[in-house]
Design brief:
A hairpin with a 2-residue loop joins strand 2 and strand 3. The chain is mainly alpha-helical. A two-stranded antiparallel ribbon has the order 1-4. It has nine helices and four strands; from the N terminus they run E-H-H-H-E-E-H-H-E-H-H-H-H.
């Protein structure tokens, strides 16, 4: 583990809005987010079933974070194709813009390709020097303590978001302490993803909300 969390190869920050928030936008956020939620679901992969005249049809779309194929490439060829990394990075950035909008951190509608005020970066690894080819087989297991803690932290962030909704609607402000906590939880989750699913680092994620 590195001595400073600022050196971790996955970083996330969200600009705090000092100006009064858009109360109407916040009040109807769950409705406002539906179109971009559909777009994100379509590019994130998945399968769908629908029934017409008692006949069930299934459909699917490719997409989502490239995990299993990356595991196999690192394991057998010690390679992480750059275009796979670029896709994972772009999808991660879009996903976190979506999450930041959903959790009321920002009022800008999530862009599919512009960074806006959500700054996420991942460091492209040199597989042969930075990654142990066998580690992808075990990272999901080693990250279990983080998954457990993130379940509790995620619930706490959810409660903070509900409280922030009322605060913004009535005062036009997102309490800075709650904002920093929610961003910290998202940052923690990103670092765990960088380790266990994005597979860009073998450095164990710090147990920290700090940048």
């Amino acid at each position: 583990m590195m001595s400073s969390v600022t050196q971790y190869p996955a970083t996330l920050s969200v600009d705090y809005q000092d100006k009064p928030r858009d109360r109407v936008n916040v009040a109807f956020r769950l409705l406002m987010i539906i179109p971009v939620a559909i777009i994100l679901s379509l590019i994130s992969g998945g399968s769908y079933k629908y029934t017409i005249d008692h006949i069930t049809y299934s459909a699917g779309n490719a997409g989502g974070i490239i995990i299993l194929a990356t595991v196999l490439m690192i394991l057998f060829q010690q390679k992480y194709p750059k275009w796979w990394f670029d896709w994972n990075l772009a999808l991660s950035r879009f996903s976190y813009r979506f999450i930041s909008y959903l959790t009321l951190l920002r009022d800008e509608y999530p862009s599919t390709d512009e960074d806006q005020s959500v700054h996420l970066n991942l460091v492209y690894p040199n597989v042969k020097t930075d990654l142990n080819r066998w580690m992808p087989l075990f990272k999901w297991f080693l990250a279990i303590p983080h998954y457990i803690l993130l379940a509790f932290l995620g619930f706490a962030a959810f409660i903070c978001t509900i409280f922030a909704w009322f605060t913004i609607v009535f005062t036009g402000k997102y309490p800075k302490s709650l904002f920093d906590f929610v961003v910290g939880v998202l940052r923690w989750g990103l670092r765990v993803s960088a380790y266990s699913s994005l597979l860009i680092t073998d450095i164990y994620p710090p147990f920290s909300l700090e940048p």
